[in-house]
Amino acid sequence: MICSKLIRVATIATEGMVFNRMEDGTYNFSGVEGKYLDIILKALNLKYEMVLPEDKEGGRLLSNGNWSGMIGEITKGNADLAFNYLIVNEQRGKVVDFSTIYLTGDMAFAIQKPVAYPVSMAYIYPFDVTIWFLILALLFLMPLVFQAQFRTKYTYFNTLITFVGSLLGKSSFRDDGKLKHRMITYLWYFFGMILSFSYSAVLLSVLTVALQIPTVKNFEELAKAIEKK
Question: Which residue intervals define the domain Ionotropic glutamate receptor C-terminal in the entry (predicted)?
Answer without folding.
Answer: 136-224
